[in-house]
Each structure stands twice: as structure tokens, then as C-alpha cells.
Design brief:
heterodimer; A: PH-domain like; ABC transporter transmembrane region fold; 3 domains; B: mainly beta; 2 domains; 3-stranded antiparallel β-sheet; about 40% strand; binds adenosine-5'-diphosphate; binds magnesium ion
């Protein structure tokens, strides 16, 4: 273990003065540990320092209060972890001398400190026990030497938020050309639609009013002006048409890109993510949220841009015709902007809330529809309806809240529009009387201003759509921002086809804060068959989940062919593994497709051969369409044993080096089990196999039995030798014998 | 009625239980059965292997000294700060940092996702931070206005 310079990097500043005072000349800190709680479990900081001679404790309440213990003595540092708090305890052979308390956030650091203490006390550094490896178990990044935390994986608060909508630019980039085209069309269309009022000005001042006053009028001017009006209308229509098409095209593609990117990313995430999220919620993120964004991009965003352009251009035109009238006309505008901002804030909160409520409601559906048999069996239909009604009521409530704001705001804008128009009339009439402007100018103004306010109104209505889209974008980026916790290695090593040896070195694993595997050591030779037994909840499935890399170990390492499996690209590694689970999942598709799931290009011969070896061939042929029969969710329903044999064929077809059977025969009757056993025998031949089974008789052929209990390996050996010693295995075996005899009696 | 078991603390600070047959179990662990919904109901004392030795229906039914010992031990291993107010949530998007006041002093933690804020029965709620530490909100309606505003978007 490297000695850190001075007091070690990252030592919080609050300790440096006090520890400098406490240290003797030449004494150096080897390691330190800072708690985040005090002994009464209140949030506070205390610190322990290890030097070659002493253990020094400081506390932040009185930093001069220093406690110390001399080394070497019969001192031991123990860590004791409960659910969310832990304790570091200093004991000698008679007593407990001191306790430090911390939350789980610091438990890894506490363990490291205790380990360094042990090394310093014993006086030799015999390996790091996996602790000092310095490599993050999940991402392969370099760990902080002092607290053992991975800077990349430790969750940190997000950086100041870039608005989620702006982040959509990432998806817009590949379509830049079309987007620019759309924008140019928008610009041209806007200008074309602004032309008519400009033409009405001379129509009044040069044609109508002179005519009314009995002056001669040039008829060609009339044709020109009317022609111009018609022309600009047609041009505006054509441009609008092209623009709508182009932008709809672009936005469809952007949202399709987004959907597939989100889905692809979702597939990369480890089981841990799916454990925490609800299916309904994830489904709605991929489908309806991306759709909402598409709508926003194709309809609202463009309208929004057009409106802003229109408002800007109108303001310029108005100012150029008559600045005074323009200023008066535009005076309510700042107020409207402020109002928009205010409403936006209100609505944003409202929409987030209704998004959460909506996801809640979909989750209820996603929960109960697959579980409908249980619901009916326990006659809980009315309770489920009530549960749904409750979340539906929450949706209603949050939408109501939005509507209250909205219903107040809409009419208010109309009122402001009216007020604006009234101002123009009043001030304009006065100006005309004062000969400041002509009637033509006033009509043009009125035409522009009514457009102006319609645009503002529609823009404000869009605030709603913008906020909705922003909420959706946020939900999608929440998935995309998630780094897979089973990470691809930074410097991958390509495993190719493995020999099949597996070594578990001091493997520990936590679900959240609960450690369920406590230091597993096991070496498996290539081609060996291991039977994993133990009471349920012992951690057997967890162990194979780790071997398959569905999760990554919390501590320690798993080696395949002597290399850490985290150094392999995940997909290449899994190609070497075949899994048969207790409750096999068949996808919707044909039997053949399901068998070939892991190798879609497998020739039919091999599919049939695999099915034959799995003893599935005969029953498949009895299905109405043989290998082309549809199975899975919407297809033909198969019995448990039949599905199991299909999944065995599936595993057989990829010809894996490592085979994992997790209670593959637990859910079938003994007759079927015998069939499946025979099928499995072909599969096991020559492969490294780890089989979990409840019926111990299933594991007769295992080279070695590994007995697990409460997250530890308690016994290991052959069936006969295990029976000789009175341990867990003997107990399990006895219990099963009694069960069988009980049946026989 | 004398209790069918006895408890004492050894010099290492561990609990030792002597059961009805006079057998001594070292380093036993008291565990609450319903830590959130009914903390005072049901405490199990398990040995180090996790096997239950004694089930206590209600702590309040125990004689004073025994109860104190157990309650102290439980308080040493339970850590659920009660959130009293939220001073600040760093951003609108998760993960975000919460600065809060709790009954165990002020602290800050990171919330990973909006699903880690969960409503319980009545007006109670639980916030679970990125390290799995749960913060209890005893009564949503009694939080100050600022905290309620912050929570609005989660519940
Ligand atoms: N996804 C999970 N989240 C939290 N705890 C889990 C999860 N899966 C399993 N566990 C817990 O881990 C322990 C070991 O479970 P498991 O490996 O499935 O046992 P086995 O397969 O030996 O029956 C159990 O106590 C179980 O409750
Ligand atoms: Mg299992």
C-alpha cells in the first residue's frame, strides 16, 4: 500500500490544523477516516488518523479534544454495518475502547481504514484483500485512495441544468440541412404574410381617399396593388405548405432517432435500473414522451419561431411608419412578457406534477394487467379498481390545477389585446385629427396590430405545449443520462472463446445497502460441473447473476480464464454463457425464432438438432405449425416443461463454454424433470456448468457440491463426503429424504 | 411474570441473551418488524446467524430496564432522520442536492431520481438518498411553506 504524502490527499481542511498539532515531529499519517455522524448519530464530523505509532481521534465539537491509542497493542478495529448506519469499533482483548459512527455513505471508507489499520498493526502488507486494488468495480475508473469512492460512480448532484429542450439539439444536428431549409422557408413565409397590410396603406392614401375627395386615380396602380395583395397571399400559402412539410419530415425523424436511442440505451442498462423503475413508466417514456416532443417540434416550435419573427418584424415595420404611434401601440408588450414568464413558472411545476401522476397511473396498469390472475384469484378486483381510481384522481387533480392557471390567463391575454387595440384607435384618431398621420397609415397600423396580438396570444397558448415538451424531454434525458452500472471496460480485452475456468475472489455484493454475499471464494476448472445448493435466499441466484454480469460485484473480483470479467466487452463475454432459468421467458415469435434467439443466423439443421438434443423436437412437431408455431405472449401457450425444453435448446444452440442452470427443473413434474434431465445431460457435456437445484438428486452428476447459506459458502465437496459430516448439506438431504418417505408412507 | 429471557451488555458493547433454557447467545441483534408502519409493535431478537430467539410483541410490555437496554440498542442501529425542513434543492432535475434540517442536525444529500420520494399512509413521506439512507417526513402539512413548495413536484 502506498503511503500518501502528508496527511493523504483530500483531507478536509477542518482537520489539518488540529492534526498538525497532534502529530509529533517526524510522525506521518498513513491513513485517515472521517465520519459523517457522531456517537449520538447526529450529523457531525469526527476523524481518526493512523500513524505508524498511534491511532489519533479528533472530534469537531472540541477540536482540541484529542484521544490516542498506542500501537502495537492488542488493538483491533472492527466494522459493524447495520442497514443504513455502521460503526467502527476499537477493541482490545477485554473491552471496547472507542466507537465511531457513520452512514453507509462512508462504510467502504471505514472498511478500508480498518484494513490499513490491520496492515499497520501486524506490520506487514500481505496483499490488499481486494481493497486496495484502486479500480472501481463498476466502471473501471480509478478510486480515491482515501475514501475508496469512485469519482465517476458516486452520484453527484447534476450540474446546473441546461434546459432539456436545448439538449434536443443533439438530435437535431444530423438533420441540420433540412432544418435550415425549414427555417428559411419560415422566414420567407413570414415576410410574405406581412406584405398585405403594407400594400393597403397606398390603397387608402393614394387610391380610396383621393377618389372619395373627387381626385383622379391611376387605375393601373389599383391593379398593381390588388395584384400584389393576391400574389403575396398565394406566395405565403405556397411557402407555408413547403415549410409545414419540411418541418414535419424533420421532426418525425428526430423523434424516431430519439425513440431508438432511448430504447438502445435502455437495453444497455443493467438489471439494477429495471429493478428500480416501473415498466409502465419506462414504456411511456419511450413511446408517448418522444411522440409529444415530435408534435412539439413539428407544430409548436415552428409556430413559435414564426410568431417571434412576426412580432419582431411587425415591431420594426410599425416603428418605421410612425415611431410615436408604434411606441404607444407596443406599450402593453413588456407587461405581457412578464406575464408569460410568470405563467411559465406556474405551468412548469404543474406539468411536472401531472407527468408524475400520469406515470403513476400507467404503472398501476402495467402492474395489474400482467398480474390479473392473482388479482382474480384473491378477488381483489374492486380494490384494484379503487387503486386505479385513486391515481386517476391524482391525474385529475393535477390537471385541474393547471387548468385553473390556464383559464385565468387565456382571457386575460384577450383583455390585453382589446386594450392594445383600443389604445391604437384612441391615439390614432387623435393623430389623424392633428394631421400627424393619414387614414391609410392608421388602417395599416390596425391591421398590423391585430396580427401582432393574435400572434402573441397564440404564442402564449404555446407556453403550455413548450412546458409539456420540456417535461417530456426531461424524462427522456433522465434515461439517456444514466450510465450503465455494468459498464463497458475502458480498455477492452476480447475474450473470444473462453476455456471456461471461473474464479471468484472474495466476492461481496450489496443490493442497495444490504450485503447479501459476504466474501465468496471459489475456483471452478474448465469443464467442471458445480452443484450449488442451499436454502432459498442464500444468495445462489445472486451469485450467478454476478457471474453472468447482470450486476457487478461490490467488492472482490470474478475471473474467467484468469482475467477479470469486467475487462471483457459485456456482449462478447455473454456469448460464452448459456443460461437456463426456472421460469423461461419466450418472446412473441415462432418456436424456431425463440430457439435461435442467441444466434439469429443459425441454419435450420442446427435449430432442429438443438431441439432434438433438448428433447423438444417431438412436442414441437405436435404443435399446429411445428417450428413455425407462434409462442410467447400473444401466441400458443405451452406448458412449463415445454417452455423449459425450448429454453434449453436455445442455450444449446449458442454452444456456450459456461452453462448456468438456475433451478431449471424446479417448476416441472418429476416425469418431465426426467426428460429435461436427459436433455440437460447433452448440454452439460464438456462445459463448465453451475447448476442450482432444490432436489438434491438432480445434482448427482456434479463433480463438486457447493453449499451456501446466508451469503457464504459453508461446505464444499462430493455428495458422500458432505453427508459424512453433520452440516447444512446433511440437514437438507435428511429433510428431503423425510419428505419422500412421508409421501411413500 | 418474569420474562423468559434475559439480556445484558458485555464489555465489548455487544448484547448477550440468556434464553429460557439458560443458554447464552452472544452478539444478538434486535430487529424491528415494522420499522416504518408500527415501530412499537414487534421486535425480534435474532442470533448472529439471523435465527429468531425471541419475539417481543410490544416493547412497552417489557419491564423498564430490559426495555431501556433494547431501545438503546435499537436506537444505535436505526438511522432514519426526520426531515424538518428543506432549505434548498440545487436544481430542477435529478440528481439534485438537497440541503435539509433534520432532527439529527443539518445535512445535505443527493437524490437520484424523483421516484425516491414516496408518500406513505396519511401525510407521511419518505425520501431515500443516493446512499440508501431514508429521511422520514412525519407530517407533510406541518412543513413550512418553502419545503412544501419544493416537495410539490414530487408528490
Ligand atoms: N433485486 C433484488 N433486490 C434486493 N434484494 C434482493 C434482490 N434479489 C435478491 N435479493 C435478496 O438477496 C438474497 C439472496 O437472494 P437470491 O440470490 O435470489 O437467493 P437464492 O437464489 O439462493 O434463493 C435474498 O435475501 C433476497 O431477498
Ligand atoms: Mg434463486
Amino acid at each position: 500500500m502506498t503511503e500518501t504524502a502528508d496527511h493523504g490527499s483530500n483531507l478536509p481542511a477542518r482537520w489539518s490544523a488540529a492534526i498538525d498539532r497532534a502529530l509529533r515531529p517526524g510522525e506521518k499519517v498513513i491513513a485517515w477516516f472521517e465520519t459523517d455522524l457522531n456517537v449520538e448519530l447526529r450529523f457531525a464530523h469526527e476523524a481518526v488518523f493512523l500513524t505508524p505509532q498511534r491511532l489519533i481521534a479528533l472530534s469537531s465539537s472540541g477540536q482540541d479534544q484529542v484521544r490516542e491509542w498506542r500501537l502495537p497493542a492488542d488493538l483491533t478495529l472492527l466494522t459493524r454495518d447495520f442497514a443504513t448506519v455502521g460503526g467502527l469499533e476499537l477493541v482490545d482483548s477485554h473491552n471496547r475502547l472507542a466507537v465511531w459512527r457513520y452512514t453507509t455513505a462512508r462504510s467502504a471508507a471505514a472498511q478500508r481504514f480498518a484494513h490499513r489499520f490491520e496492515v499497520a498493526r501486524v506490520g506487514h502488507a500481505n496483499g490488499d484483500g481486494g481493497l486496495g486494488a484502486g479500480v472501481c468495480p463498476s466502471c473501471g475508473g480509478v478510486l480515491n485512495t482515501d475514501d475508496g469512492a469512485c469519482p465517476e460512480c458516486t452520484p453527484a448532484a447534476a450540474p446546473p441544468p441546461v434546459s432539456s429542450l436545448l439538449r434536443l439539439i443533439r438530435f437535431a444536428k444530423p438533420r441540420l440541412g433540412m432544418i435550415v431549409l425549414g427555417f428559411v422557408l419560415t422566414l420567407a413565409g413570414t415576410v410574405a404574410s406581412l406584405a398585405p397590410p403594407y400594400l393597403t396603406m397606398p390603397l387608402f392614401d393614394k387610391v380610396l381617399i383621393p377618389h372619395q375627395n373627387g381626385l383622379p386615380v391611376d387605375p393601373t396602380l389599383v391593379y398593381w396593388l390588388l395584384g400584389g395583395l393576391a400574389g403575396s397571399a398565394i406566395l405565403a400559402w405556397l411557402l407555408d405548405w413547403a415549410r409545414t412539410y419540411v418541418l414535419a419530415w424533420v421532426s418525425e425523424r428526430i423523434s424516431a432517432d430519439m425513440r431508438s436511442r432511448t430504447y438502445a440505451h435502455l437495453q444497455q442498462l443493467s438489471l439494477e435500473f429495471f429493478g428500480g423503475k416501473r415498466t409502465g413508466d419506462l414504456m411511456s417514456r419511450v413511446s408517448s414522451d418522444s411522440d409529444r416532443i415530435c408534435n412539439f417540434l413539428s407544430l409548436n416550435l415552428i409556430d413559435f419561431l414564426t410568431n417571434i419573427l412576426m412580432i419582431g418584424l411587425t415591431a420594426v415595420i410599425l416603428l418605421s411608419i410612425n415611431p410615436w404611434l408604434a411606441l404607444v401601440t407596443l406599450s402593453p408588450f413588456p407587461f405581457i412578457l412578464w406575464l408569460v414568464h410568470w405563467v411559465r413558472q406556474k405551468l412548469r411545476r404543474g406539468f411536472r406534477q401531472s407527468g408524475v401522476a400520469w406515470a403513476d397511473m400507467t404503472s398501476v396498469l402495467a402492474d395489474t394487467i400482467p398480474g390479473i390472475r392473482v388479482v382474480k384469484a384473491f378477488a381483489q378486483e374492486s380494490r384494484e379498481v379503487e387503486r386505479f381510481d385513486q391515481s386517476n384522481a391524482r391525474v385529475l387533480e393535477s390537471n385541474d390545477r393547471v387548468n385553473v392557471i390556464w383559464s385565468f390567463f387565456g382571457p386575460l391575454v384577450t383583455l390585453l389585446t382589446e386594450a392594445g387595440l383600443l389604445t391604437v384607435w384612441a391615439f390614432g384618431v387623435w393623430l389623424v385629427f392633428a394631421e400627424g398621420i393619414t387614414v391609410g397609415v392608421l388602417t395599416a397600423f390596425l391591421a398590423y396590430i391585430s396580427r401582432f396580438y393574435t400572434k402573441i396570444e397564440s404564442m402564449i397558448r404555446m407556453v403550455q405545449a413548450v412546458q409539456r415538451a420540456a417535461a417530456s424531454a426531461h424524462r427522456i434525458f433522465e434515461i439517456l443520462d444514466r450510465t450503465p452500472s455494468v459498464a463497458e471496460p475502458k480498455i477492452p480485452y476480447h475474450p473470444g472463446r473462453l476455456e471456461g475456468s471461473i474464479d471468484l475472489v472474495d466476492v461481496r455484493f450489496k443490493y442497495g445497502t444490504r450485503e447479501v454475499l459476504h466474501g465468496i471464494n471459489l475456483s471452478i476448472k474448465p469443464g467442471e460441473m458445480i452443484g450449488l445448493v442451499g436454502p432459498s435466499g442464500a444468495g445462489k441466484s445472486t451469485l450467478i447473476n454476478l457471474i453472468c454480469r447482470f450486476y457487478d460485484v461490490s467488492e472482490g473480483a470474478i475471473l474467467a480464464d484468469g482475467r477479470d470479467i469486467r475487462s471483457f466487452p459485456v456482449a462478447e463475454y455473454r456469448k460464452n454463457i448459456g443460461i437456463v432459468l426456472q421460469d423461461p421467458f419466450l418472446f412473441f415469435g415462432t418456436v424456431a425464432e425463440n430457439i435461435a434467439y442467441g444466434r439469429p443466423d443459425a441454419p435450420r439443421d442446427e435449430i432442429v438438432a438443438a431441439a432434438r438434443a433438448a428433447r423438444a423436437h417431438d412436442f414441437i412437431l405436435r404443435l399446429p405449425d411445428g417450428y413455425d408455431s407462434l409462442v410467447g405472449e400473444r401466441g400458443q401457450s405451452l406448458s412449463g416443461g415445454e417452455r423449459q425444453r425450448i429454453s434449453i435448446a436455445r442455450a444449446l444452440l449458442i454452444d456456450p463454454r459456461i452453462l448456468i442452470l438456475d433451478e431449471a427443473t424446479s417448476s416441472v413434474d418429476t416425469e418431465t424433470e426426467r426428460e429435461i434431465q436427459a436433455a440437460l445431460q447433452t448440454l452439460i457435456e464438456g462445459r463448465t456448468t453451475i447448476a442450482i437445484a432444490h432436489r438434491l438428486s438432480t445434482l448427482r452428476r456434479a463433480d463438486r457440491l457447493v453449499v451456501m447459506e446466508r451469503g457464504m459458502i459453508v461446505e464444499m465437496g462430493k455428495h458422500e463426503s458432505l453427508l459424512e459430516s453433520p452440516g447444512t448439506y446433511a440437514r437438507l438431504h435428511q429433510a428431503q429424504l423425510e419428505l419422500v418417505q412421508g409421501l411413500g408412507a | 411474570m418474569p420474562e423468559p429471557f434475559q439480556l445484558h451488555r458485555d464489555p465489548f458493547g455487544r448484547l448477550a441473551l440468556t434464553d429460557a433454557h439458560g443458554v447464552q447467545h452472544l452478539g444478538v441483534n434486535p430487529i424491528r418488524g415494522f420499522p416504518i408502519s408500527a415501530a412499537e409493535y414487534g421486535v425480534s431478537i435474532c442470533d448472529q446467524e439471523g435465527r429468531e430467539l425471541v419475539w417481543i410483541r410490544r416493547l412497552s410490555e417489557l419491564p423498564g430496564e430490559l426495555r431501556n437496554l433494547l431501545e438503546h440498542e435499537l436506537s444505535q442501529r436505526e438511522f432514519m432522520p426526520v426531515l424538518e425542513s428543506i432549505d434548498k434543492i440545487s436544481t430542477n432535475n435529478e440528481p439534485c442536492e438537497w440541503q435539509v434540517q433534520t432532527d439529527r442536525g443539518p445535512t445535505a444529500f443527493v437524490l437520484k431520481s424523483d421516484e425516491d420520494v414516496r408518500r406513505l399512509d396519511g401525510a407521511r413521506a419518505i425520501v431515500t438518498d443516493a446512499n440508501g439512507i431514508a429521511y422520514l417526513i412525519a407530517d407533510l402539512n406541518r412543513l413550512n411553506a418553502v419545503s412544501q413548495r419544493y416537495l410539490e413536484r414530487y408528490l
